[in-house]
Amino acid sequence: MKALRMAAVCLTALGLTMAHAAPALTDEILIGELHPLTGPASFYGIPESRGIQLAVEEINAAGGVRVGDQSQMLRLMTEDDHSTPTAGVAALKKLRAADVRFIIGPLGSGVAPALFPIIDRDSGVTQIVDGTIAEGVTNGRNIFRNQAAVSQYDLAVADLFRSKKYASVAMMTDRFHAGFMGTQPALSETLKSLNATVAAEEYYKLGDTDFSAAMTKLVSLQPEVLLIRGYPAEGALITRQARQLGYEGQVVWEMVSPPSTVLKNISATEMEGVYNCIPPTTEDYIALGQDKALAFDKAYQAKFGTTPGELSTLSYDAVYILKAAFEKAGSTENEAVNAALAAMRPEDVPQLISGYVAHQDGRLFDDVGQVNLRGAVSIWQGEGWVPVPDLAG
Amino acid sequence: MARIPHIALISAVAFAAAVAVATQMNDYLLYVVILWAIFASLAVSFDVLLGYTGYLSLAHGALFGLGAYTGAIMTTRAGAGFWLALPVAGLVTAGVAMVVALIAFRTRGLYFAVLTLGIGLIGHQMFLVASGLTGGVLGFAGIPGPGVPSWLPIDQNLWNTCLALALLLVTFLAAQVFVRSRLGAACIAVREDMTLAQALGIGISRARLSAFIFSGFFTGLAGALFAAINNFVAPESFTVLGTGFQLVALVVVGGMGTLWGPILGAALLTALPEALRMASGYSMLAYGVLLLVFILFAPKGFAGLIQRGAAVLRRPATRKLSPTKEGVR
Q1: Where are the domains positioned within chain A?
Q2: Do A2-148+293-348 and A151-278+376-387 fold alike per CATH?
Q3: A116, A134, A170, B311: least buried by Cβ within 10 Å?
């Protein structure tokens, strides 16, 4: 009985301790970040979290953020959203209870829509979404996104089909990926309008390992293209099983896919020639020899002893976007920061690594808070992805 | 067995105490309390079925989702208010639960569990496939919350917490009334020896059907409240492997057939993932270890441990009395 009582007291004490994070001091700005740090999506979430840590450290080491006539340091509060809606909402509530007013994240396409109604009606919080590609999770008032929307991924797929004039396609989509499922009908229509027959649309889910039934059906249809939309572990297995079943057509991926994850489930030889249609990621910028990306890579490796993840630069950029907004607003009041974000131009944030293209009016974010980060085509060569600058070539 | 008025009084005092404590909590802790209260309501109603009839249903994750989507559709598309949507969600879920029960009670034991597992899987797939109604994988957004009455000077989060605690109170009291009724006694007879119960002329079909419908009704209410408080629901909250098995865990860890044990089980298993939030890999490990430990060493769950502890505490007191008795003799 005593032991039980002790356990209950300890658990309660632990809960209360964790819930009451120290409030932000007047000379520091508290930034919360929400990413999946455990579970199947952590291979995206951890590198994103590290990208944020690196940017915060850099900014603080350089003297902090200049707000009006005083400098303020950034302080980070990290929460694990497990990439599930309920845990994500709990994590958000925890950040808000600790008086966090600026939030970066989440990654999960299932989490962002759950957070949206809460943040949308909370004028005391500003959010920059750096991970999810699901549509409809920004508002341009207090929720902005520096990641592409899935429709921007689809533009690259359309470019590829337009250029290569593929005649038929079979689609394999992660049924639980809100982003990809959301644009599936529109993409299907776009491909049809480009004279490609949609031979089949099949679905799978994160964690599946045996695709033989669906692949047997798809391979028998002999589509010119097998388009896979979802996550790389399954993408690799689907590609391998399709090849084993004798599929010789073009495999096209539409997913952020770190080579280290891809190569756990397929050999580099089997991946040779696969296309991927997404906006450039960390690795692409490094491969292109972009100075800021190279410096980021070096600092990241020095700090964490490993290479950055595909989305790390987006998270890193998000911190610098917030910094620029604080400085432009000359205030840390949410209303002023939101206005600064809405009016921001890419050139206002010289530290940005990702290749954001200004909207027609020159702003970084459009009216609904979305950046212009158009998808591009890369091809697997050797041990990783290589950008394809000229699709006609 | 304690009488209903006594239980009602103790429960009402516990409810008032919980609300009083809640007024001192921040929004995050309130949300954890809400999750606990909703899952405790689910677990109590599930205990009526599992603990009192012995039938293991794995369809309850889907029934929880049905309640959530019914509430969401009622308030967003049918223009109903929360207070109408809540009982309708309960009734719709109870109706579907009745159909499920009529099919599933044609089997027993493992076959019943497997059949309800299939129904749970179908239900979850329906939430995905019927995207016109449910929003599919994108989820159902924009569900209006239960508005705070204008005469009540509290904020939305505290109001949500009060509602969740009230649901737990109502579910618990209703379950107490149910298990003390003739139907409840018949359910226990079904659990202990169905053949003997049949031989004695106990209406086993009616008893177990009533338990399933009772459980379905309160599962539907919990789902509708969950949807309204979160303003958003998605199919992944209602999977068999997630919510379906979680309910079993809450009841097993809490103590089957006690009604109050599952409330403790829900407290432990809701607090644990939050307390271990930054190490949720360990949280799942702790979850698994807890289940293992309880099944191996405390099959009567938390409630059994407490009852055993109370018995141990009572024993020395009896011994102290015995010399006096002997002295009298």
Answers
A1: 2-148+293-348, 151-278+376-387
A2: yes
A3: B311
| Residues of chain A contacting B35 with CB distance shorter than 8 Å | 86, 90
For residue A80, list chain B residues with Cβ-Cβ distance below 8 A: 277-278, 280
Measured in whole angstroms, the distance separating CA A100 from the mean position of its chain's CA atoms is 22
Residue A154 has, within 13 A of its CA and on its CB side, a CA count of 20
Fold assignment, A151-278+376-387 = Rossmann fold (3.40.50)
Chain A, nearest residue to B26 by Cα: A97
Among the partner residues A89, A116, A176, nearest to B31 by beta-carbon distance:
A89
What pTM was computed for the model? 0.83
* φ/ψ bin of A25: left (φ > 0), alpha (ψ from -120 to 50), beta (otherwise): beta
pLDDT digits (tens, 9 = 90+) for B35-84: 999 999 999 999 999 999 999 999 999 999 999 999 999 999 999 999 99
Q: What is the CATH number of domain A2-148+293-348?
A: 3.40.50.2300
> Rounded to 5 degrees, what are φ and ψ at A265?
-120, 0
Beta pairing class for A384-387 and A376-381: antiparallel
Least confident interval from B113-127, B213-227, B252-266, B272-286: B272-286
pLDDT in tens, A93-103: 999 999 999 99
Write down the residue that tokens 């808070």 correspond to. A369
> From A179, which residue of chain B is nearest by alpha-carbon distance?
B138
Tokens 């298990």 -> residue: B179
Question: Can you name the CATH fold of B4-297?
Answer: ABC transporter involved in vitamin B12 uptake, BtuC (1.10.3470)
Rg (CA), chain A: 22
* Residue labelled with tokens 């994240």: A105
Determine the average pLDDT of the residues in B290-298: 84
Rg (CA), chain B: 21
